[in-house]
Amino acid sequence: MERSMEVRVGREHQVYSANGARVVAGCVCLDREKKRVLMISSSANRSKWILPKGGVESDELDFRETAKRETWEEAGCIGEVGVSLGIVHDMRPPKEWSDRKMFENATSDAEVNKHPPRSEFHFYEMIVEEVADNFPEEAKRDRKWFTYSDAKQNLLNAKRPELLEALNRSSIIKD
């Protein structure tokens, strides 16, 4: 993989699934002992910790390559991308529900979840070989190693159950 310091931006080449979900690829980045996972701060809120991932673009046919590219751009990680962790759907309410009125007026879980997935995540496990000092998004993200229990708590705090599902599918040692 080429280590470009350029970040792909914009959504004009973004891939969407048949049901309108944004197609995203990312990595669960584990240390060699599989005891810790490398997480990054959210670009929207630096106090929230998430997994590196990003949109698949129309010229990217191999989601593994997208996952590697996004992991490099966001976390500065290089490593061996191994097993697919499958597809995880982001079932959070649509962003237009951000005013919460529609969400708060829902009468059941079924009503809240009747919308199609917001994103379709394709996650892969990566065994980290190198964490670079300089990487494309170093100025806007922090990164840190976490044990499973701390990573789980951070993903719950960030309200990212779909990312927790990817972590749970990985081979990290659950302490």
TrEMBL record:
Metal-binding in keyword set: yes
Query: Keyword annotations for this protein?
Result: Hydrolase, Magnesium, Metal-binding
What sequence ranges are listed for the domain Nudix hydrolase? Answer: 20-168
Q: Which domain of life is it from?
A: Eukaryota
The yes or no answer to whether the keyword RNA-binding is present is no
Query: InterPro entries in the record, alphabetically?
Result: DDP-like_NUDIX, NUDIX_hydrolase-like_dom_sf, NUDIX_hydrolase_dom
Report the PANTHER family cross-referenced here.
DIPHOSPHOINOSITOL POLYPHOSPHATE PHOSPHOHYDROLASE (PTHR12629), DIPHOSPHOINOSITOL-POLYPHOSPHATE DIPHOSPHATASE (PTHR12629:SF0)
Q: What is this protein called?
A: Diphosphoinositol polyphosphate phosphohydrolase DDP1
Q: Which source organism?
A: Nakaseomyces bracarensis
